[in-house]
Specification:
291 residues; mainly alpha; Cytochrome Bc1 Complex, Chain D, domain 2; 2 domains; two-stranded antiparallel ribbon; 6 strands; 34% helix
Length: 291
């Protein structure tokens, strides 16, 4: 992470510590849209300011739980408030909810842990622990913010060869020619050991293509065509990334989306056509324990 990002993370953590002894009803929560602060309800669990600090500086704050160089806001842009980038706005009101990937009803804590294990290739947190509850508190602070209308999905099968050229032209200046990322620009790694695991949502063709179409390049968002976004996504996803143990148990009812990056046990049993194998790297950290 670059020096300005470290300084911001340190400031947020210092602020969080300074107010952590205040009554819950008096704790400020950042209004990320307007730069102001608002009072949290007395019933709000945890500390939302400290939670935001953890979400924006996960690896620096919780290194024993991090498996790559990404942070939560690498994908959930603008502190989770950008409507085109998987926003957290209004998310708290949607949980607990059934999700087909695990095949059961998930709490907000479990959903966050899934992101830690998959997107951050990390070790899950104790769900009743302070770190988790503070992150939940930040997402709770966005509960009443209107949930944006979903963006149009890019459901095209990309072409790797064309995507290589598109990546070199549109993406390499920030994310590196080898997908390694650029800490000076806060640009995350997009493949390799420092990027998200094969079990992450971003490792799905349609998910990544949709994200690219509406959010990238970072300084010229919404300029890629659907085809360009699909091809770049295919190229990026053809590269190796960390494995995710237990991924074969996903979608236990045999209903994986068409763009899932790996075969599941239920899909094999049902005779569903299986995706081609993708290259994976050795996992650095087990989702449930440090190796």
């Amino acid at each position: 992470m670059d020096s300005p990002s470290r300084s911001r993370a340190s400031w947020l953590l210092s602020l969080a510590m300074a107010i952590s002894c205040a009554p819950a009803s008096e704790r400020p929560v950042p209004d990320t849209a307007g730069g102001r602060t608002a009072r949290t309800p007395a019933t709000l669990p945890g500390d939302a300011v400290r939670g935001l600090a953890l979400l924006t500086a996960f690896r620096d704050s919780l290194p024993e739980h991090s498996g790559n160089t990404l942070r939560c806001t690498s994908c959930h842009l603008d502190n989770g408030t950008r409507g085109t980038a998987m926003p957290w706005l209004g998310s708290a009101a949607r949980y607990p909810r059934y999700r087909s990937r695990p095949g059961y009803e998930e709490t907000m804590e479990r959903r966050i842990n899934e992101c830690i294990a998959r997107s951050l290739a990390g070790r899950m947190l104790a769900e009743r622990g302070r770190d988790m509850q503070d992150m939940v508190a930040y997402i709770e602070s966005l509960r009443q913010r209107p949930r944006p209308t979903p963006v149009d999905s890019v459901k095209l099968v990309g072409k790797v060869v064309q995507g290589a050229g598109g990546y070199a032209q549109q993406c390499a200046r920030c994310h590196g020619s080898n997908g390694e990322g650029n800490p000076a620009l806060s640009a995350p790694a997009v493949w390799g050991p420092d990027s998200y695991s094969i079990g992450a949502g971003m490792a799905r063709q349609f998910t990544l293509a949709t994200f690219l179409r509406h959010n990238m390049p970072f300084d010229h968002a919404d300029t890629l065509s659907d085809r360009e976004a699909a091809d770049i996504a295919a190229y990026v996803l053809s590269k190796p990334r960390q494995d995710h143990p237990g991924k074969e148990r996903d979608w236990p009812n045999g209903d994986p989306p068409a763009d899932v990056a790996y075969a599941t046990t239920a899909a094999r049993a049902s005779g569903t056509s299986l995706p081609p194998k993708r290259p994976v790297l050795r996992r650095r950290v087990s989702p449930d324990s440090i190796r």
